[in-house]
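Checklist before submission:
- one chain only
- standard amino acids only
- sequence pasted in full

Submission:
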Amino acid sequence: MEENKIRVAIAHGDMNGVGYEQILKTFEEPAMLELCVPIIYGSPKAAAYHRKALNLQTAYSVIAHPEEAKDNRLNLLAAFDEDVKIELGQPSAEANEAARVALKRAIQDVQQGLVDVLVTAPDCLPDFLAKEPEVLKVRQAGDMRVALVTNILAIKDVPEAITKQKVVEKARILHTCLLRDLRISNPRIAVMALNPAANEDGHWSDEEQDIIIPAIDELEQQGIQAFGPYAADSFFGAGDYTKFDAVLAMYHDQGMTPLNALATSECICLTTGLPFVWTYPETGAQFDIAGKGIADEAPMRHAIYLAVDVVRNRRQYDEPLKNPLPKLYKEKRDDSEKVRFAVPKPKDQKPAENTEE
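Returned file contents:
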């Protein structure tokens, strides 16, 4: 195996959905095997079933451990021993549990450094890491990126869930993602208002005045280019989102509805704020078309592209920071005065002439 190739763990998702179809179609293309070393975390039985049902010819090798993965080959790691019944198009508790076990094994291996990145096929699982405070999902479709301050909540619960601290935290994670994961040198973030007529007649609504504007002010003091707050309808309707590198929306529908409506390509998600890279296509399990051979594999392919790009970007970003330069001066107090000791001049450099009379 080439050492510089990225090892991609692909959790198989819900085996009754389109996950295997997306994966097998993706790696029908030989160029994908030149990009990375893919390892499906799933079931040999399920893979064989889908390949036969879809009349696909994608070859793969069954392995028991990531270190056995072969280069220029699709690898399949048997992540569980259960004999799970496959019912294409039918969600089931069995398939859901199999997806959970496969994902758990993949996360374990990426955390241990046995694989480099994690990509997940569509499933119906709740987010394992949804409660982690440093985790932020950044959805991307083309050049449009959206992150959310709150996760999926009832509308009546959204205002109470939005605090100044949470807006600042999510914006900081998003800023770091744009810098480190996507290598955008000077990110510009648009922050949405909570209310649709946030600044009507020159007066801000309470949430904007008391929470969102102070959060933006604090972000500016930290050197983060955050702008707003913007009312979502006019902001997206006028195309103002094109002037920013990412949008921080207050709640799910405020960000995801325009993203899905305006996107020129399928949406993929980067889960940032983790010590490892995790991406997935936002297609859902699509039970209605499972087994029909019409699922689009492009979102899976782009999720893999994004994962490989991000892990490389992180390595490049982190490399200069591994061995920071020592301090070039120290400070010492002499009575009430602070005396600074500068870096000594080179020995062969003559001291400046004294011009004082």
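Reviewer check: The CA atoms of residues 32 and 248 lie 33 Å apart.
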